[in-house]
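Revision sheet: structure tokens.
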Amino acid sequence: MSYSSSPVPVLRTPYEVEQALRNYRASDLKGWDLIRQWQAIRDAALNQDSPEPKNDRVIGEESY
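Predicted:
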């Protein structure tokens, strides 16, 4: 089995991730091309900021 030396693409914006997902679903990738595309989408999804608010304090917390 030969390994490809092509790097995994780096997806930086939500638009790039959406575009990669569309291409992934519409394409007939196989082998290492499939793995590279999947890994790029996975890495980008894990690196996206969470929609959760940073300040998740409980209302009225000071009264206890």
